[in-house]
Specification:
By secondary structure, the protein is an alpha+beta fold. The chain contains three helices and six strands. A two-stranded antiparallel ribbon has the order 1-2. It has a two-stranded antiparallel sheet with strand order 3-4. The N terminus is likely disordered.
Amino acid sequence: MLITLIGLLALVVSSASGQDVARCLPPDVRPDEVVSYGRTAKENVTVAKKLRELKARCHHGKLIDRNKREIRFFRVNCWGHPPPNYLEIKERERAELEKLKKAYTVVVMGCDPRIP
């Protein structure tokens, strides 16, 4: 009985904090979105799972990690067939990501490897 009660309490606390974290997500990021793709759908890492790994919480409307560092999301460009200037785009992307990492904890949203 006590173990069941403790398990239920843990479930309520984790779902409450999960809802709390979800309310601080940027408008273009959903908790069920994939951050990194595994070989199977079960191995995919979602935004929600990544935020749990980072022990994220919502503080004054901002997501912060366990070290009280703000969390930002970064989407890499994904192409089936890259544009002619893709090297320039990748270089700008790399520079922007490097700059963000100096000030924030950055969650990089990867590309779906199934896109040709």
